Amino acid sequence: MNTFVDSVVAAGRLVVSGDAVLMAIVARSLAVSACACALACTLGMVLGAWLAVARFPGRALVLTLLNTLLALPSVVVGLAMYLLLSHSGPLGFLGWLFSFKAMVLAQSVLVLPVVTALTRQAIEDADRDHGEQLRSLGAGQLARALLLVRDERYALFTVLITGFGRAVSEVGAVMIVGGNVDGFTRVMTTAIALETSKGDLPLALALGLVLLGVVLVLNIAISALRGWRERVDGGAAGTAMARHPGGAG
Q1: What CATH number does the domain containing 24 carry?
Q2: Fewer CB within 10 A of the terminal residue: the chain, N end or C end?
Q3: Residue 3 falls within a domain, yes or no?
Q4: Is residue 2 part of a domain?
Q5: Are 127 and 144 in contact (CB under 8 A)?
Q6: Is residue 51 within 8 Å of residue 116, measured between CB atoms?
Q7: How far is CA 239 from CA 65, 73, 236, 242, 247, in A?
Q8: Which residues, 6 or more positions from 7, have their beta carbon under 8 angstroms from its beta carbon?
């Protein structure tokens, strides 16, 4: 394959034919990211909702640290996880290094700040609009956070999709802790890096096309969810005005 066009055509054939090696790597990549996203979103949404309504000394410092972690390089996370999970590290007894579990853990650490920060912002905005009313009804911090999470569930679903997109496109951390072992820990991003270095451009491009397709689907889902929510909110507002026409005056 000496030309770019030839490589793209061959890559397209691999995708269309459902090449076994390609599909195995894609399935493993999606499984790792889904598990990492589930863990990170469970913890991150709880933590983000609490940070949105809680007021305590040092909160500004915590938020600054959280925003700093949003730019945390993936290779730094990979190195930290490697040191923790290595045989001489504090978590070495788990035997997770170069395993599926290690990659899930690394991706979870990367996704957690993103989910926490986005959840905190969404819930804090909602608390600014409706928090006073909830407080007047006697709702404490925990009850207020839970009620706002329920009200903002569609926005939080967008956060979940964003977290998955962050996980599935990650390469540095999973390459370090997973080892890129063929048939065990090789995912789309690490396989693209390896196959490119080996000169197997068709497989690398095929994986790149699938990865771009996944990201495209995620963005379409986010846009569709936002559009649907705007239509629902607009319809609800219109119904309320129709029932109480004098309210607008």
Answers
A1: 1.10.3720.10
A2: C
A3: no
A4: no
A5: yes
A6: yes
A7: 43, 48, 5, 5, 12
A8: 1, 201, 202, 205
Which residue's structure tokens are 């999973």? 174
Q: How many domains does the chain have?
A: 1
CA atoms of 21 and 177, how far apart (whole Å): 22
Task: Check residues 20 and 3 and name the one with the higher pLDDT.
Answer: 20
Q: What's the pLDDT at 47? A: 94
In whole angstroms, how far apart are CA 241 and each of 80, 129, 161, 236?
56, 19, 33, 9
Band of pLDDT at residue 248, cut at 50, 70 and 90: very low
Range of the domain at 171: 9-229
Q: Quick: pLDDT tens for 52-83.
A: 988 889 999 999 999 999 988 999 999 999 99
Q: Do 156 and 120 form a contact (C-beta atoms < 8 A)?
A: no
Per-residue confidence (pLDDT) for residue 1, from 0 to 100: 47
User: Phi and psi dihedrals of 220, rounded to 5?
Assistant: -65, -40
d(CA 192, CA 188): 6
Assess if residue 237 is contained within a domain.
Answer: no
Give the pLDDT of residue 55: 87
Q: Note whether 226 and 29 are within 8 A (CB).
A: no
Alpha helical stretches, state H, the chain: 4-17, 20-53, 59-69, 74-85, 100-136, 141-151, 153-168, 172-178, 188-198, 201-243
Closest by CA position to 114, among listed 189, 165, 62? 165
- The whole-model pTM stands at 0.86
**Which among 77, 145, 64, 76 has a CA at the least distance from the CA of 112?**
77
Asked if residue 247 belongs to a domain, the reply is no
Residues 6+ apart with CB under 8 A from 75: 172, 173, 176
